[in-house]
Amino acid sequence: AATFGFGLLLAAGSASALTIGFSQVGSEGDWRPAFSKDMKDEAAKRNIDLKYSDAQGKEENQLKAVRSFIAQKVDAIIIAPVVVTGWDAVLKEAKAAKIPVFLADRDVDSDPSLFVTRISADFNLEGRLAGAWLAQASKGKCDVVELQGTVGSAPALQRKKGFESVTALFPDIKIVKSQSGDFTTAGGKEVAESFIKATNGFKGICAVYAHNDNMQLGAIQAMKEAGLKPGKDVLLVSVDGVPDMFRLLAAGEANASVELKSDIGKNIYDVVEAYLKGKTDFPKWVLIPSDLHTQADAAAELAKRGLK
Ligand code: AHR
């Protein structure tokens, strides 16, 4: 019905008047609010009526939001799922109501026929890029502490798996401690403090691998408070490429970050709009590329973004 209605609107030459429900994870870290802003700005540009719902990190809030989008008979639903599990029932309800669902950023472990496609980066590749960088920087010998993202979330699961798939090739690279800091600066700081304590000031620790930059920012604070020099005494590699991380890279206080693009609203709405106009042959995954940045290119990357 939504496809037909949207087709009629276009045929009549009217401006797009789509109503889209977007269930967002929350606002942890710096990357997520940048992504939310991009989704809102891009919706406004396209005259999309975006019903935005912030789940504050709780899947139960997302399930409620999606059910409310269904009740409002929106044209499409976009979900950035907090965790991978628990989605089957609500996705089936959307399907029964003939409302197409698109996954943005994070993944689910449901039957793929319950959603149209997922538009996102390859989290496993991000982990592999981080692992390959570390293998090279440490010459294949390193005791690593790992700050994991939200337990059960696609990026935490995949960034761990990808990183380990590379470090497993190097017998002298070992993850000696690993715990979730829930993708927040405060969480990263708290876990890093406990690791610093447990290892007597990061004795023998060669690197911190954080599943996002904000946890690394927290770890950097903890290291400084413990009298350590981040980026020098310990190698630091993380994911997101947020502005503060580029600044730390440029200042030599961190070593590498894999950038996760946050300006992907255009990619997501292009897919949703094309689907509602009748295109159905989408791959199950529309890939957004990620790339690794280091101290060598951080200043240039800041300049490229008009940042200091
Ligand atoms: O799902 C992507 C991850 O979620 C980002 O890397 C992290 O910052 C966010 O919380």
UniProtKB/TrEMBL annotation:
Q: Which residues form the signal peptide?
A: 1-17
Gene3D superfamilies assigned to the protein according to its UniProt record, in alphabetical order:
3.40.50.2300
Its Gene Ontology cellular component terms are: cell envelope
Write down the Pfam families for this protein, in alphabetical order: Peripla_BP_4 (PF13407)
- In which compartments does the protein localize? Cell envelope
Q: What is its main location?
A: other
What keywords are annotated for this sequence in UniProt? Signal
Q: Start and end of every Periplasmic binding protein domain?
A: 20-279
Tell me if Signal is a UniProt keyword of this record: yes
Query: What is an example of a GO molecular function annotated in this UniProt entry?
Result: carbohydrate binding
Read off the CDD domains from this record.
Answer: PBP1_galactofuranose_YtfQ-like
Superkingdom assignment:
Bacteria
Could you say which protein family the record assigns here? Belongs to the bacterial solute-binding protein 2 family.
From the Swiss-Prot or TrEMBL record, give the protein name.
Answer: ABC transporter substrate-binding protein
Which organism's genome codes for this protein? Siculibacillus lacustris
